[in-house]
């Protein structure tokens, strides 16, 4: 798989989540562009940024579906965890000197598209119903949820600013 082209069919209809998914796709494309660079230091930074952003997206998504009372929050979280383990393992091999950029890029791009299509789509109705229940104005609700979730995550993980990257 080469450059990821974002197509409207990949949007799940929750504005904030779609924005974060597009951003992950941008990171993956940056990794693709640099996959053959001889500059391992730069590559290491790009890999770390891609992984970090994806992890903060997962934390945000998990907190959101849990708050909305999604029935499969637990299994969804476990799918994320499995993916994190695989990515961390590849990242460790990179640090040990292996050439992993192509493998990591392939894995990330396949995984992202499949996960959005198959698993993320599953929570949309529950989250939207929850947002409607909280407020008739969906935009305002989304904004409020966003702020509350980030505050909660920062307190839980004691990582000030780490989650702010989701919105920068
Ligand atoms: Fe997910
Ligand atoms: Fe997601």
From TrEMBL:
UniProt-listed InterPro entries: Hemerythrin, Hemerythrin-like, Hemerythrin-like_sf, Hemerythrin_metal-bd
Keywords per UniProt: Iron, Metal-binding
Domain Hemerythrin-like per the UniProt entry, residue ranges: 13-124
Domain of life: Bacteria
Homology family: Belongs to the hemerythrin family.
NCBIfam families reported for this sequence: bact_hemeryth (NF033749), hemeryth_dom (TIGR02481), PRK00808.1 (NF002007)
Protein name: Bacteriohemerythrin
